[in-house]
From TrEMBL:
GO MF terms held by the record: metallopeptidase activity
GO cellular component, as recorded: cytosol
Name recorded for this polypeptide: PmbA protein
Family according to the record: Belongs to the peptidase U62 family.
Domain Metalloprotease TldD/E N-terminal: 27-90
Start and end residues of each Metalloprotease TldD/E central domain: 120-224
A Pfam family that the UniProt record links to this protein: PmbA_TldD_2nd
Amino acid sequence: MLSEPQAADLAAALVEAARKAGASSADAMIGISRSSGISVRLGELEDIDHSESFEVSLRLFYGARSATVSSASLDSAGFAELAERAIAMARQAPEDPYAGLADPALLGSGVGDDLGLFDPTVAPLSDLEARAREAEQAARAVAGVSNSNGASAGSGQNLVALATSTGFARATRSSYFSCSASVIAGDAGALQRDYASHSSRFLADLDAAEEIGRKAGERAAARLNPVRPPSGACPVFFDPRVSSSLLGHFVAAVTGSAIARKTSFLQDALGTRLFGPGIIIRDDPLRPRGLRSRAFDGEGLPCRPLDLVADGVLTSWLATSADARQLGIAPTGHAGRSVGGSPGAGPSNLMLLPGGRSREELLASVPRAILVTELIGQGVNPVTGDYSRGAAGFLVEGGEIGAAVAEITIAGNLRQMFATLEPASDLELRRGIDAPTLLVPELTVASA
C-alpha cells in the first residue's frame, strides 16, 4: 500500500493532468483498501474473503459544467487520457451555477492532529476464524438458542487521499476490526432471531468475541413467547440499539440539499426550539479513534465539533459548498463522499448527549410502556415528518422489563417526538451515530 504522502502526490498529479487538459478547476481522490473476513455457521467454516481494491476519481469543472470519471488503475501514465475523457463529458453537461470547489480561503492546511484512526495490527485469518468460532459458540450456549445464522469476524485498512486545484493535498489512513453473531431461539412455529456486533478502529478496543456471542444469544432467547399489547396511545422507549435512528431522521432533515429543495419537514426550524430545554446534539469529527472521525471533509475543509442542537434550539444546517451557495450561507465542513462520488452533506460522529435521569429512573417514570429494540421498514415521510414503523421489543410495567412484544407498529410525527423526547444518562459511544435510551411520552401503538 502507498504511503500517505505518495497517495496525496498521486492525487495532485491527477489534478494537474486535468488542468493541462483545460479544466478550470478540479479535485481528485485516491482510494486503496484491503480487507479480510471469515464467517462460520454451526461450527463449520462457511466463507473466507480477502479483497484489495484501488480506485482513482477525478471531478473537474469546465466553467459551470462538470463531470466525474473513475478508474481502477493507479498508473499515472493514464491520467492524461482520464482527464481528456472527463473534459469531453463536461462539455456536454448542463451548467450548474452552484457547483464548484470549496473557497480556497476556507481550506484546511493539510496538517492536523493525529486522531488515532490507524492500528497497524494485522489480524491473521486464523485469528479471525478463532474469533468467529468463539462468538458463535458463546451464542449457541445460551439456553433457548436452537439454530445459528452464523458469526463473522473481519479486519481492514483504508487509505484515502484528496487533492484540489486550489492547493489542498492530504491523505489519511484508517483501520477497522469487527465481530458479529446472529442466532435463532425457540423451535418450529415459535422462532425468534437476534444478533450482536461491534466494530472498532483498534483491535484492543473490540469487544470480546465471547461477550458478543453471549449477548446475541441472550437477546434472541429474551424475545421468545411474545405478546401483543393493546392498541392505543402509549409511552415508548427507544433502546440505544435503535434510538440513534431518530438522529438519522433528524440529520436527513437538516442537510443543505433537503433544505434547498424544500423537501424537509424542518424547512422553517433553524433558530427555533425543536427539542426540549437542555437537549444537545453534537457532531464531533475530532474524537480520537472515532468510527467517523476526520480532520478534513470531502472538499478539504477543516472539521470542527459543532452543536447542531444547543439547549433544544436548532443552530445549523449541514452544508457542502454547493449547498451553501444555494442557501446563501457558509459551508459547514460536513461534506462526505465516496472515492467515485460527488460531495454530499452528512455528519461525522453524531451523538445526542445524555440526560439527567438513569435508564432505570426513566423506565420507572411511567406506569406502562413499550421498550423498542428493533425497528422494521422505512415508514418516514421526509416532507411532513410523519413516522410509522414496524417494531419489536418488550413491555415495561412499573419500571420492570417484562414480556417480549412483536408485530406492532408505532406511529407519530417526528417534530412532536423531537419536542417531547427525554434522554436517559446511558449514552455509550460505540457507533458513528449514538444516542442513549430515549423516552417519547406518547406514540400510537398498534398490534398487527
